[in-house]
């Protein structure tokens, strides 16, 4: 009886699926082992592939410009125009000189997000190690730029001159705290949304093996996958437009 109970428990445990396993960083070569600073991992591979996709689309795809554009040229031109208009609308003409950096950010994030939707792929933007680096790069860039362009007057960003004088010191502290929280919210928003969506898809995929609810699970996976396509673009857009907002603050810091 004890043996049968043990076998039943073992059988039931074999059905357990772990939706977070898809986010485990593993060495690309070899089986297991510690992941060090210079270890080539699945993250390294898919980060590299994101760069390859960008080069193929934006460089190779537009190398033979034509009046009637190819598909790759059309996508590249749409992406260029979309981000250019975003930078111009949010930051003004002054911010257009920083367009290449913002365009690179957008293309990298959207490429990494869409690559992560491929079967057996790895979603690099689901890892805080990646998104924190992107957010900190934006934070340090706009902060340094703010002081370089405005000097000490950049601190006017934290001084709400339109508020009553008695409230200004309190508001300055709140503004200062919110400023340093920017890279945290900037990185968590991207990684959290991408990770959550992929985890939900994995959960529904686990139920697909059960014959009774398999059709419902397949429909749910299809719906979630469609939603994740939309989320992949939206999260790249949100990260980029927030970068534009932060850049605007650096160029025009006064309330």
Q: How would you describe this protein?
A:
The chain is mainly alpha-helical. It has one domain (41-52, 73-251). Helix content is 67%, strand content 0%. α5 (128-150) packs parallel to α7 (214-251). The model is unreliable at 1-15 (pLDDT under 50).
Q: Give the domain tally.
A: 1
Radius of gyration: 23 Å
Taking the sheet with the most strands, its summary is: none
Structural class designation: mainly alpha
Low-pLDDT segments, ≥5 res? 1-15
Structure annotation, total helices: 7
SSE arrangement, N to C: HHHHHHH
Number of strands: 0
Strand content: under 5%
Mean pLDDT: 85
- Helix residue percentage: 55-70%
How many angstroms does the end-to-end distance come to? 75 Å
How would the global form be characterised?
globular
């Amino acid at each position: 009886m004890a043996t049968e109970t043990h076998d039943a428990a073992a059988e039931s445990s074999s059905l357990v699926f772990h939706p977070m396993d898809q986010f485990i960083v593993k060495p690309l070569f070899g089986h297991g082992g510690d992941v060090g600073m210079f270890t080539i991992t699945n993250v390294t591979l898919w980060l590299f592939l994101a760069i390859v996709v960008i080069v193929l689309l934006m460089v190779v795809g537009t190398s033979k410009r034509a009046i009637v554009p190819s598909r790759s040229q059309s996508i590249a031109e749409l992406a260029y125009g979309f981000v250019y208009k975003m930078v111009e609308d949010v930051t003004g003409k002054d911010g257009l000189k920083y367009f290449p950096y913002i365009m690179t950010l957008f293309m990298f994030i959207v490429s990494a997000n869409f690559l992560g939707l491929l079967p057996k792929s790895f979603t690099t933007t689901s890892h805080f190690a990646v998104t924190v680096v992107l957010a900190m790069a934006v934070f340090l860039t706009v902060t340094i730029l703010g002081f370089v362009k405005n000097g000490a007057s950049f601190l006017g960003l934290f001084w709400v001159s339109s508020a009553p004088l008695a409230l200004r010191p309190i508001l300055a502290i709140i503004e200062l705290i919110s400023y340093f929280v920017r890279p945290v919210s900037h990185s968590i928003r991207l990684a959290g949304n991408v990770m959550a969506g992929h985890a939900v898809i994995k959960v529904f995929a686990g139920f697909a093996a059960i014959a009774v609810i398999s059709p419902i699970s397949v429909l749910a996976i299809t719906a979630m996958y469609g939603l994740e396509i939309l989320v992949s673009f939206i999260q790249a857009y949100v990260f980029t437009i927030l970068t534009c907002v932060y850049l605007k603050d650096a160029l025009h810091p006064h309330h």
